[in-house]
Amino acid sequence: MGWTHCIIWFLWFSVSECQQLSTTEPEMHGQIQSPQYPRPYPPHLEKQWDLWVPRGYQIQLSLTHLDIKVSAGCSQDSLTFFYDEKVLGRFCGQGNSTDHHGDETILSPGNKLTLVFQTSDSTPEHQQHTGFSATYKAIDIDECSKTDPGLDSGPLCSQICINTAGSYRCSCHSGYKLHLDQRTCLLSCGGCVFDKHEGHLSSPGYPKPSPPFLSCKYIISVEPRFIVTLNFRDNFHIDNKDNQHGSSCQGHFLQVTIPGRLAMKFCGTKSPGLIVTNSSTVRLDYHTEEEGLSNGWSLQYSTHEVKCPHPGSVTKGSITPDLNEYFSGDSIHVTCDQEYKLMMGQQEIKTFSAMCQSDGQWQLPLPTCIAVCGQPTNHINVYQRIFGGQNAPDNTIPWQVLLS
């Protein structure tokens, strides 16, 4: 009977247990208590709890009761908190002892927290300490109050950081846009349509160096009857990486795109000068990267109406309106004098109108006016006859006789 009693106590004293509260979905809150709480805890015990919550949260644990045998440095009985093997605190003691921390809150740096409860081999009859009781909950991490360790302790967002449940997002001030890295704010440029008949465009900050990571789009679009002309200033500088084939215009460039023509890409220090687009629409794309330095560009743009050549005149007819100049969108009409009819080639037409097109050409060529013969009023009663007529031999003169 005595041996049986000893074996039972040996097994009881040798308990070492690890408990993870959840192996599937993380618990957002819960309660932890020492073994046999609120009765005295057993001796020779080592029990571990592994708590975890979703990423973007941290664990806040509050000790609602703490009664652990006191010892120097809590070397015998203790409750220890770990985060990634880093000791956050080791507690023991009772209500009024200096090592008692029952009213303190433990806050894990991240989304996990480990508790280890250890007890010594005290005689069970003399052990009356009840252990501990604690509650925990997941609280949202304020990422915006932290710095990014991968960015030399720089901020997570370059301008505005918005804390969200379990995460954060970056935003930008007016006039800036968020870069693809979702952290960096870049100066916003272009993106709108310029529809005035004249104006000025320049790179951001010109003539100071352009910011990196620019991707600016400028569109000039006026009425189809106008043509846009670009006039670049001489102070033109876009970083240029030369290679064996000449200028590459890869990282930094200004591209001018005109409908119906190949896009033109510019870099270096030579200004494009005057560009007559012969179009009512033109697009400019300005691009910079992190490496390289560009001081940018500036231009004035102007427009003028598309003009068609004077249509000329129509014999035995008139053109209305009769103007000195005809511009795109203007129309003309042709009418014939009395006893004349409109002809387009070999076909009679009732009316005619043509428009000056945006390419400076008339929609149709002018028609002609020819006389209307009508029905004869006096019939001819004379009868006539032709005699003779045959194929003439070579080197002879053919003949015919008309008798009336």
UniProtKB/TrEMBL annotation:
Q: How does it assemble?
A: Core component of the complement C1 complex, a calcium-dependent complex composed of 1 molecule of the C1Q subcomplex, 2 molecules of C1R and 2 molecules of C1S. The C1Q subcomplex is composed 18 subunits: 3 chains of C1QA, C1QB, and C1QC trimerize to form 6 collagen-like triple helices connected to six globular ligand-recognition modules. Within the C1 complex, C1R is a dimer of identical chains, each of which is activated by cleavage into two chains, heavy and light, connected by disulfide bonds.
List this protein's GO terms for biological process. Answer: complement activation, classical pathway; innate immune response; zymogen activation
- InterPro entries given in the database record: CUB_dom, EGF, EGF-like_Ca-bd_dom, EGF_Ca-bd_CS, Sperma_CUB_dom_sf, Sushi/SCR/CCP_sf, Sushi_SCR_CCP_dom
- The residue range of the signal peptide is 1-18
Reaction(s) catalysed (UniProt annotation): Selective cleavage of Lys(or Arg)-|-Ile bond in complement subcomponent C1s to form the active form of C1s (EC 3.4.21.42)
Question: Mind listing the UniProt keywords for this protein, alphabetically?
Answer: Complement pathway, Disulfide bond, Glycoprotein, Hydrolase, Immunity, Innate immunity, Phosphoprotein, Protease, Repeat, Secreted, Serine protease, Signal, Sushi
Every copy of the CUB domain together lies at: 18-139, 189-304
Please give the Pfam families that the UniProt record associates with this protein. CUB, FXa_inhibition, Sushi
All residue ranges annotated as the Sushi domain in the record: 306-371
Keyword Hydrolase in annotation:
yes
> What is the native source organism of this protein?
Pundamilia nyererei
* Protein name in the entry: complement subcomponent C1r
Which PANTHER family does the protein's record reference?
A: COMPLEMENT C1R SUBCOMPONENT (PTHR24255:SF25), COMPLEMENT COMPONENT 1, S SUBCOMPONENT-RELATED (PTHR24255)
Q: Which domain of life is it from?
A: Eukaryota
